[in-house]
Known about the structure:
CATH class of the largest domain in chain B: Alpha Beta
Shape of chain B: globular
Structural class of chain A: alpha/beta
Helix content of chain B: 25-40%
Low-confidence stretches of chain B: none
Low-confidence stretches of chain A: none
Strand order of the largest sheet of chain B: 15-12-14-13-17-18-16
Strand content of chain A: 5-15%
Mean pLDDT of chain A: 91
Radius of gyration of chain B: 23 Å
Strand content of chain B: 15-25%
Largest sheet of chain B: 7 strands, antiparallel
CATH architecture of the largest domain in chain B: 2-Layer Sandwich
Oligomer: heterodimer
Number of domains of chain B: 4
CATH topology of the largest domain in chain B: Uridine Diphospho-n-acetylenolpyruvylglucosamine Reductase, domain 3
CATH topology of the domain at 302-422 in chain A: Rossmann fold
Shape of chain A: globular
Largest sheet of chain A: 5 strands, mixed
Structural class of chain B: alpha+beta
Number of helices of chain B: 15
Amino acid sequence: MAERLENTRKFQADVEQCMKCGFCGYFCPIYREEHEEKGLARGKDQLIRSALQGEQDLTKGFYEAIDNCLLCRTCVQYCPAKTRIDHAVTAARADYVAEKNLPPAKRIVFRYVLPHRRLFGLALRLASWFQGLLPRGQGRFRHLPQFLSALGAGRAIPDIAPRFLRTILPERSPAAGAPKYRIGFFSGCATEYVFPEIGEMIVDVLRNLDCEVVFDRRQGCCGAPVYLSGDFHTARKMAARNVEAFEDYDYVVTGCATCGSGLSEYPTYLADTPEKKERFERFAAKVKDFNKFVIDVLAADLDRLTLKPRFHGKTVTWHDPCHLARYQEVRTQPRKILQALEGLRFVEMSDADRCCGLGGSFSITHYDVSRKIADHKSDAIAACGADAVVTACPGCMIQLRDALARRNMDVEVLHIGELFTVRPQSKQT
Amino acid sequence: MAYEQFANRLADIVGKANVLASEEDRKVYSYDGTSTWTHKPDLVVFPTETEHVEAVLKLANENRIPVTPRGGGTNVSGGSVPIRGGIVLVMTKMNKILSVDAANLSARVQAGVVLMDLQTALAKERLFFPPDPQSFLGATLGGIIAENAGGPVCLKYGVTKQYVLGLKAVLPTGRIVEFGGSTVKNVVGYDLVSLVTGSEGTLAVVTEAVLRLLPLPPARKTIIALFDDLPKSGETVGKILDAGTIPAKIELLDNWVVRSINRITGMGLPEDAAAMLMFECDGTEDVVEHDSRNVIRVCEEVGATQVLVADDPAKAQAYWKARSAGFAAVFGAAPTVLAEDVTVPRTRMAEFIQRVTAICKKADLEVTVIGHAGDGNLHPSVMTDAKDPAHFQKAQRAVDEIIEAAVEFGGVLSGEHGIGLEKQKFMRRTQDPIFIDLMRNIKDIFDPNGILNPGKIWEDRSG
């Protein structure tokens, strides 16, 4: 049998970093709603430390504490002691799952549905037929009825797309000009099944910026929702498959903040041998968020970006996804793009990098708190007077649409890739 | 005692969701910001209105259940640790700013409001609450009042007790009381507001406070000066104040912290600097201009090796961030850090720091001294490891010597952290017995059954 708490023990140094100052309370979106120490990074740290010292069993109460975290990393960003509580919490979840297994719903989704792309597609297709029975909201959103209140009563959920990305996008999209790079496009589940048009638009932009784009059919779920919930075992299989599919491309580009960080963190959580660590690190170095790739890698001439006519005269604001701003340090790049688009007005909302409260499955298991956290976002969006909120994470988009629909706010939620096209290379160069 | 029987009755008062009794919940309310003290409560209770506190205290008083009030748990004295078990009364859900009265420069807040949230709300009205304990991101006003907290700007603005006009509180017998009022001048009888302020939660549970505010200074400037020997920095502080300038803050950092700032931020400060002073002048534009010229002139006259002036807010912010980083590095530098809070007369500060250095050198211990140089409040921090008994004992002995030296120099053993559990043994050793006797009698009047935060300050913690 594996050593008790073997995953947590790897991050023991992180756990012991906390000096109990309690400053995390100011930054924790959950603590600011609940005001209870168990939700606080310091409280979690003390419980995990206690487990490592053999004074705390992996009880239901322990799981509740470590499960009640968005992994938004806001506290990590400001922690004076630089405590990586996100490492400790994720590893503790893994040890809990190894000893006690996942909650049943997550077990079925993570182990049987997510890893099998065809089955996943079928399940969603089936779900989309049932969705037809749900009351329709604005645009491509429906409202969950009362009897599904476990998933959040009255919540707006996105329609499953009529056609999935892999039936739309060719495997290989040639570069418009002389190819600079050969890149693998990693769509992620939400882009594949809910927002396929965003996937198409991103590929189109990349192609016109002279990249050969391959939508490699071998790709699957990035594994982030799985390993961040503590199922390292299943996620290792997902990682193996994605690394195998993508390691030979120049870059792996994704329009999903969570997938981007999810793929980048394989070495942190999923490498169980030195060889794998090295291989995962090489792979992770190739993973680039769409914004970062356009600005930092391609150093694209932003004059070539043309705002689509329907956005002319609009005011937009930017929502920083946690998995982009704090996980991948991508903050300035999307703002550069938005500010460069002629005909568009860009305004900052207050606390643009405040977590939207989704936290993956957190928004299902803790919908009440998740909704309250999202309401602060709605307030900030309303106050800045934007017509649309732009981001680069389909997860955030689903949460923001739900939050804005609840307030009946007439504000669009857009992926940055939807806003513009790329003009062909000018003749002088 | 079995407290489970009371859980239901408490739930009737505050609601089921506001009474916690699981092993995990008890564990996370067993500590504060210190590394030495922990004790699990039997029950954790969250009141959401003053009447809840009234009913909980009545029940506790009738049944002799110890009650320890707690805010953000950022205190560093052991003050909010429920050392005799019983109930931890957590005030964090009473967190509303009830009113801000700009015309009368006052605000009414519930005890659980976090200082930073208050300052953010006040800044919108160009106001501020001067006391600035450095735990402002987590500390609640109730806790700040209970501890009579200070902070860097207290040199110019004074400490918490100068900014509490009135209190709504509940006595341990379960009686709601209101002390003070909402005016700055008030000499109606004994000043019970000041008595409760700084009583470390042993006399009453504060549920609301009327705070005195000041207009937010429109301008501020940060100046850094480095010195190649410690007495020069002490001399500089004295001369600046003599010249009639009172900066809002004068922070002293020693060589250890200067080097750690360099390591963390790459600021390139002189590695051999014996001391660094950080000043912040605030007020109107012309006052700030005048004061900062004075500060720079004195620093140069006394012989600072380098004087840096932050001309813009971003640079000033970077300097203060560097100071915080240097400060935080102290706590990450060893498994256990014994951070003291002594205060000595300003004129003897340099001499005292040299004594501290000598004490630790003799015992072969690593030490760093940071502090609020303007008011002589110093935080010597001794690096040790509680898991290494021999080393830990040696460190504790050195701390004893440091505190005794502070008293010998005409100072006090705690400037702003409070006694709680942490400084009890020194309290008894250094104070006149009549002082402790008077406190005991006062406590008996407020709390005849001794249920409120028992085992703290002068009381024996074992009960």
